[in-house]
Give the backbone structure.
Amino acid sequence: MIKNLKIQNIALIENIELDFSERLNILSGETGSGKSIIIDSICFLMGKKVEREFLRNNCEKGYVEALIYLNEDIIEEVKKLDIIENIDNYIIVSRTLFSSGRTINKLCGKTISLTTLKQLFSLLIDIHGQYEHQFLLNPNKHIDILDKFILEEVKILKKDLYEITKEYKNILIKIKKLSSENSEEKLKELNFQINDIEKYNLQENEEEELLNRKKIINNYKILYENSSEILKILYDDNGALDKIYNTVTLVNQISNIDNEQSNLLTNINNIYTNLTDFIHLINRYRDSLNYDDNEFDNIENRLNDIYYLKRKYGNNISEILEYYNRICKEVESINLEKNNLFQVYESKKKCEHKILEYCQKISELRKNCAMNLESKIKDSLNDLGMKNINFKVSIERKKEFTINGFDNVEFLISTNEGEPLTSLHKIASGGEMSRVMFAMKLILAENDYKDTFIFDEIDSGISGRTAQLLAEQLAFFALKKQIICITHLPQIAAMGDKHFLIYKKFNNNRNYTNVSNLDFDNSVNEIARLISGVQITKMAITSAREIKNMAISLKKRIDNNI
């Protein structure tokens, strides 16, 4: 539960701090005073996205911080998130909004992600907005509401159903893929490409070898003439070879006379031998230089074939061959899957059978839960002044199934004895819708980990005796959960364990939203304002004091009967 809330530089708020009661906290004030800003600030703290305009004008940053008490059940759930090393009963959560639109979220001084922040608050706080009862007007949402009342067993079944439904969708996609004309077209296209590449019998490094051979042919004359000239220089009479041979004779005489110069003879002999080998290689190279016009044409044609394949399948022969291997495997896979189509259909049947089993089990649990829910809703609405009401959870089987099963769920209601049941959105007034939603909140809270429930004008469309009954139910509700409630009704305001007045003041050409924690007398004055409006009369003050004292007496009786 929220023990302390600090808000700085948010909307019209410059700096306020609220210390909440662990029971019923009332926020009241004139329309436009900024009550909803406080709720919006809590929503922002919980991870709601806001615009930069949410920041107070001319401020670089705004800040919301809450000191939160965790009961033992919530501590166990928070531990599962693995976001706090040494978790205690108290945590501090803050969120800062900068003028750039950037936000920083912190838990006990440590920066956390927005996802983590939302996961944390999903365990801590339930907010009922002014228009949340509109949720009840959409029959498509009723199945989600019903499932919130169901035991852990259904959560497990729905999780299993979700997984098997994902598998089923994948099977359908596979069947569609294997059975479609697109698959056949794809196979036809791939086979054409395979044959197209295969008929050219590409070899690695082939293009480089062809280009080199083409270059040799184009420069045949130069190569031949240079080779001949080299041989002439080295091998003709009195050429380099003869001169080196004569040099060998001279060096031999030197080494015979000076034994220490034998290395000279070795070196010159090596030169002579290497030159002889080189002349042999050049001679063989010159003799190998030959070509005909057909060879050149063949090279050109082969290179054109390679360029054709490169335009279609890759930048070079390696990429073309890599693509070839890949599409061969793809064709093999498609053919294998086509051969296994029968097995895929068998998997589809088994999957459908499992899905129907899960759907049936979930439906049975829903029907059992619906009976219990109907009884509790009737009792709760009776306590809220809706006598002789009939409430029914209609569960019918649809032809199709989804991740929610095959049930179609709709809430039906009859607000007057003898009238037929009809859709909730067709008959319920705003006040009746508020009471139905509040009744559901009461019942949901029985098994909810959350410690704090926030009601932003739950009293919409309610007045008179019904307002008193709703106030009493809030008091009972506050025995188990912390409640923060915005209200315009004096009966509900009087029931608060803490009463905060939200008001606006004008200072230095700016509006400021402020908050006061009202004592008994000031609370009476505020209740009187709720009763009489603009002019607070003595009669209104007397009535307000009487309502406040009656509320105190009722809460004492409630406490004594715990």
User: Anything to note?
Assistant: The first strand starts at residue 2 and ends at 10. Residues 1-124+450-516 form a domain with the Rossmann fold fold (CATH 3.40.50.300). The chain is about 55% helix and 20% strand.
